[in-house]
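EI: anyone free to look at a 58-residue chain?
SC: sure, send it
EI:
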Amino acid sequence: MDTLAETLSVRLAKWQQDIAELARQFILEIIDLADRDALDILRSRSVEQEVLDLLDEY
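SC: here you go
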């Protein structure tokens, strides 16, 4: 099994049920976007934070 999948499996078992379910939903959304080659159109959090920081400067 891939290291990422192994890590995810371990963490999902350790997290509180509501946190694990939320993580599963996010991961399923990411998989769906990757299947549709749509990941590149999403802004990352770091890019959004950079924009917010720039706006704060003005």
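EI: The CA atoms of residues 8 and 57 lie 38 Å apart.
SC: 👍
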